[in-house]
């Protein structure tokens, strides 16, 4: 790799916060940003052991990180969690809103809390963390925000009215915030993964996976690392002129 | 000019990077004269709140026009 390409991808000296960073796509994103030189705050809510494992994986490749435990759906917890990162690092340059859950069900059978929990974590969570983090980004007149959406938010998915609504909402949120913060050189984009091995898609059955494969032009599910590469690109100076976009990492599933 | 007024001018200058600090007078109108946009106002409010340890609600912001209004508001809040 030429040194110019390496420099354009480098996140040396930057601080990143990755929500839901303990496993799956979030873990791959945390590792990718750390491998580009960023200090990474790995947020998690419940999976302490997985977060520690992510920490070890980052340390093993010479990266630096900290674990940051808070529930993105709880505004007060988000404020104090973000303050703890800012106390350690002074600023947050890159925010990746990745924390997400699924509570699938057909609409007639979907309970209020299934709807509520998914909206609270996947959509309100991103709002909570952005509100807390943008204050410092505005102050410093620079920043990158990458929201992890989903093909379900673009095409819909039976049994996922809650999840699809939250992810579609996140895409609208991304575009509005991109316009709002562009004057301060804060770039806001979404990465929309299709079917990815590990993480939330792990719950799909073999038959479902087989059916999905026939619809994916690249004929295979993606990996968390392949999603992380798009996030790294958007977080680096390679993405200097990209804002308000939805970058699809889906093997052609939806074009 | 008192300490609060001087500090307010410092903070406004810090937000409005394109404005020369010498041009920020007590009677300068923040939007009309200094060209502050909505994000600048938001940034100023956040800085003033942190610096003076107070909360400024949107209704109060509407009433503020000049640099002196900001300083007067802070002094009044300090006395309350």
In short:
The complex is a heterodimer of chains A (255) and B (80). By secondary structure, chain A is α/β, with parallel strands linked by helices.
The CATH class label of chain A is Alpha Beta
Structural class call of chain B reads mainly alpha
**Total helical segments of chain B:** 4
Instruction: Tell me the CATH superfamily of chain A.
Output: NAD(P)-binding Rossmann-like Domain
CATH architecture label name of chain B: Orthogonal Bundle
CATH class of chain B: Mainly Alpha
Decide which structural class fits the backbone of chain A: alpha/beta
The percent range for helix content of chain B is 55-70%
State the major sheet of chain B.
Answer: none
Our Rg estimate of chain B from Cα atoms comes to 11 Å
SSE layout and pairings?
The complex is a heterodimer of chains A (255) and B (80).
Chain A: H1 3-9, E1 15-18, H2 24-35, E2 39-44, H3 48-60, E3 64-69, H4 75-89, E4 94-97, H5 112-140, E5 143-148, H6 151-155, H7 161-181, E6 186-193, H8 206-215, H9 224-235, E7 246-249
Parallel strand pairs in A: 1-2, 1-4, 2-3, 4-5, 5-6, 6-7
Helix pairs in contact in A: 2-3, 2-9, 4-5, 5-7
Chain B: H1 3-15, H2 38-52, H3 58-63, H4 67-79
């Amino acid at each position: 790799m030429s040194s110019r390409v390496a420099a354009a991808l480098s996140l040396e000296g930057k601080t990143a916060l990755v929500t839901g960073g303990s496993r799956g796509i979030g873990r791959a994103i945390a590792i990718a940003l750390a491998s580009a030189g960023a200090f990474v705050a790995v947020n998690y809510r419940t999976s302490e052991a997985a977060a520690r494992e992510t920490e070890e994986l980052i340390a093993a490749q010479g990266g630096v990180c900290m674990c940051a435990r808070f529930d993105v759906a709880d505004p007060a917890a988000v404020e104090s969690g973000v303050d703890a990162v800012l106390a350690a690092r002074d600023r947050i340059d890159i925010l990746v809103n990745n924390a997400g859950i699924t509570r699938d069900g057909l609409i007639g059978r979907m309970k209020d809390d299934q709807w509520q929990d998914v909206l609270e974590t996947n959509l309100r969570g991103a709002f909570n963390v952005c509100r807390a983090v943008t204050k410092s980004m505005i102050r410093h007149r620079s920043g990158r925000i990458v929201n992890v959406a989903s093909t379900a938010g673009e095409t819909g998915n039976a049994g996922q009215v809650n999840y699809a609504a939250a992810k579609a909402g996140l895409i609208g949120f991304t575009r509005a915030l991109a316009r709002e913060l562009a004057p301060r050189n804060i770039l806001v984009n979404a990465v929309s993964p299709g079917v990815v091995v590990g993480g939330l898609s792990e719950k799909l059955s073999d038959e479902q996976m087989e059916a999905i494969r026939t619809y994916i032009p690249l004929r295979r599910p993606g990996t968390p690392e392949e999603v992380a590469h798009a996030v790294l690109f958007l977080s680096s100076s390679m993405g200097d002129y990209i804002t308000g976009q939805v970058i699809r990492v889906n093997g052609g599933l939806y074009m | 000019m008192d300490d609060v007024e001087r500090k307010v001018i410092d903070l406004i200058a810090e937000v409005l990077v394109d404005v020369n600090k010498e041009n920020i007078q007590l009677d300068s109108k923040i939007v009309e004269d200094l060209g502050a946009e909505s994000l600048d106002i938001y940034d100023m409010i956040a800085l003033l709140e942190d610096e003076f340890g107070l909360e400024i609600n949107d209704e109060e912001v509407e009433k503020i026009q000049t640099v002196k209004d900001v300083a007067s508001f802070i002094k009044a809040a300090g006395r309350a």
